[in-house]
Amino acid sequence: MGASALSAAPALAETAPDDAVSIESIKVTPDPVVIRGHDDVAVTATVQTVGAEDVKFDFEPTGRGGQPDCNPCPGAAKSSSGDWKTWEKTIVLDRRDPDGDWVVYVEATGKDGKAVKAKAYFSVKHVAAKPPYRGPRATRIEGFDASPEPVKKGRKLTLDGKLSAARCHNDWWWDGNVFVVGGDRCRDDYRWSSWRWLGWQEIKVYFHPAHGGKWQYVDTIETNPDGTFYTKIPAYWSGTWKVVFEGSRGLYGSSASDYVKVVR
Prior knowledge:
- The chain is an all-beta fold.
- The protein is built from no helices and 20 strands.
- The strands form six sheets. A four-stranded mixed sheet has the order 2-7-6-4, with no helix packed on it.
- A hairpin with a 4-residue loop joins strand 12 (172-174) and strand 13.
- Residues 60-82 are annotated as: Disordered.
């Protein structure tokens, strides 16, 4: 949810060098804060103090710029004592929070009740999110093998392998039948993260003789529900066997090949 604007900050108090409490530094990360589309972004202010017993933070947008980080802050003691402390406060900004300059006000209170104040500025920027990928999904043929090798002339070769489809692309996920919105299953940011079998798809078989010539169509087979395929074909000449998935709506094509020597 959006960060609520808090009450206006009081004027910056001057701190004498011998005061017991001081704010040494303020750092805001990230800076700038880049909010993409509907994303939420955590913003953290880290404060170093000397002699502080309590620290309060206020974040709010402002129409004017200022010093990004406070280091050293006005009135900082830069003490060498062991009373240094680090304090943090995190807020979450989203698309409902305004662009532009923001300020974090910090108030530190010492043991004696005295308070000192400081502030630091950071910027917020909104950018359009990348649209979900809706193009064709990659496919691949895994473990394709033509065996035995070598094979005697006229004997049958076994051709087998497995057809798979890319499971994740941005926030889309392939469940084996349809593409669905992936939610937390897909966190790969435009890279394939895993693969799943692709059943009931046609695979075409081709052969290219070693002595030359063109690719010859041999047969069409269908993948099983788990994506595997299997067939037996007589071998008469040495050459390369290739299986091809030509693709379909929403799926890219893919292929694999294997060379087999035929002996007498």
